[in-house]
Amino acid sequence: GDWLRSLLTLKDLFELECHTQSGLELVEKYVKFVKERTEIEQNYAKQLRNLSKKYNIKRSSKDEPECRLSSYQSFLDILNEMNDYAGQRELIAENMMMNICIDLTKYLQDIKQERKMYLIEAKKAQQSLESTYKQLDSSKKRFEREWREAERAAQYAEKTDQDINATKADVEKAKQQAHMRAHVAEECKNDYAAQLQKYNKEQNQFYYIDMPLIFNKLQDLDEKRVRKLAQGYILFSDTEKHVMPIIGKCLEGVTKAGTNVNERNDSMVVIEQNKSGFDRPGDLEFEDYSQGINRASSDSSLSTPKGPMDLLGKNRSKNFWLFSKRSKLSPATLPPFSTPPAPSPANGPPSPKFGRDTLSYCLKEINKTVKPRISSFRTLRRSPTVTEDFGHLPPEQRRKRLQQKLEEIFKELQKEVDQSEALGKMKDVYEKNPQMGDPASLASQISQTSQNIERLRAELNKYEVILSDVPPNSTNRHYIRHRKMLSDSCIFLSSPDGAHSDESTPDASQAIYAEFDDDFEDEELTAPIGSCTAMYNFPGASEGTISMQEGEVLAVVEEDKGDGWTRVRRNNGDEGYIPTSYVTITLNK
């Protein structure tokens, strides 16, 4: 490969080792970078959650009237969407940690071990070649030394043979020495040739087989490292892209929360929550004091006040509900009035006390004495003492509060009835199977449940009577439907065993329910305000409800007023209430 052509001339692996080490350090640096990015994401998500929690409405405040406004609901939706958005940021951090940091760290340990093994093999092959070369050099030097000694011995033997003074024994000895040296030199020559052949073979093995194989393995390892690192780069982007659709939905939810704000509906909710039901005061009557008319004679009745003078005059003993404090006007504080003398030019200009208009003077004097004023909005918020029949509230608010009270009592009563039925069934089981329990052990519970039922029935009847005294609003369909439901429930609970008895005589409240039923049935059909499509089946078994099938399209006659029910109408004219959560509603623009 490319590495092979460039690194075969190296006698060590220093450059190669430095390159692979630099690659490993780059992987470690990238893992550290991603870890710090995940910490940033986690801190960001944590701050977003804390921010949503900080501005979210507490459970105790969710029943406040302001929470029914669409602007408040939209703000809560935005906080929920931001909380979901924070969850997606946490998911990004978690996926980056799992898919990039942990995976690359594990892969880094594996390639470090593999790289170390390849480098050890390369160093062993290089050391083996260097050892063979040392042996070759040693045999070469020995051959060189022995060959020189053999030449020197041969020259000495020839010189001794030519010397006439040398004995035969000296000549023979020199020749034997030269022959021996020549033999040793020949052996060194053969050994050198063998070592040279061995080295060349190992050198070819090292450069053409061993090192190319190791270099190719290291090259493959480094390329896999680069490829793995590139995948980590891509995952860095894909991890965030994967949650982008969900983040987009969160942002769409924020946009939808803004579009769901309906200032008109909010105004209607505020009006519905705060309207008092008081009649508007009539016009003030002119009281001509110049004719000596008694002020008290103008107060004809104790009916609905016609103005502030009625509230402060004959009915001053009653609370003026708009103000938290009573404004009393004592007759003694009024100045005595008498017929003023007619102005005459002889007496000079008219008296400044009366001026030109006697009525203006009287009104000024009254204003000096009676000054009902609202010092601040805090005065309006100070409610009177809460009474059991909610008589301290305005008529409309009182009616709503009585309806809520009846619903609460009815739920408790239904719960007690269910418990009574369950205890009765359990008692029957114990009587048939004594080994399962003693029927007498349930006597106290059955007695207590019966007492609770009687108490709740008494409270239910009491508040029904109170509610019947409050004039109903003919346009309030929910009020009529609520009374019809209570009527059916009371008939069901009127008998001791919970069953309806045909012989039971209706009480006074039943006549009231019948009156409301007649009003409800005689009402003319109202124009639809939209349409809805059923998402689920609804049996419509309760009184006042209507059944529907999944996918059925109905006309919306009246929107949900906050109790979870919407009034709809079929094409054949059948009308009734359905759960708002069971349909998708489209209102006419």
Describe how the helices and strands are arranged.
Layout: H1 2-7, H2 14-55, H3 70-162, H4 168-259, H5 263-274, H6 308-312, H7 358-369, H8 377-381, H9 395-432, H10 443-469, H11 477-493, H12 508-522, E1 530-534, E2 553-558, E3 565-569, E4 575-579, E5 583-587
Antiparallel strand pairs: 1-2, 1-5, 2-3, 3-4
Helix pairs in contact: 2-3, 2-4, 3-4, 9-10, 9-11, 11-12
Explain what you see.
Residues 1-266 form the F-BAR domain. It is found in: Cell membrane; Cytoplasm, Cell cortex; Cytoplasm, Cytoskeleton; Lysosome. Its main location: membrane. Keywords: Cell membrane, Coiled coil, Cytoplasm, Cytoskeleton, Endocytosis, Lipid-binding, Lysosome, Membrane, SH3 domain. Pfam families: FCH, HR1_TOCA, SH3_1. By secondary structure, this protein is mostly helical. The chain folds into three domains: 2-265, Arfaptin homology (AH) domain/BAR domain (Substrate Binding Domain Of Dnak, Chain:A, Domain 2); 395-490; 530-587, SH3 type barrels (Roll), CATH 2.30.30. Helices cover 62% and strands 4% of the residues. The chain contains twelve helices and five strands. The protein has helices spanning 2-7, 14-55, 70-162, 168-259, 263-274, 308-312, 358-369, 377-381, 395-432, 443-469, 477-493, 508-522; strands at residues 530-534, 553-558, 565-569, 575-579, 583-587. Strands 4-3-2-1-5 form a five-stranded antiparallel β-sheet, with no helix packed on it. A hairpin with a 5-residue loop joins strand 3 (565-569) and strand 4. Helix 11 (477-493) packs across helix 12. The chain starts with a helix and ends with a strand.
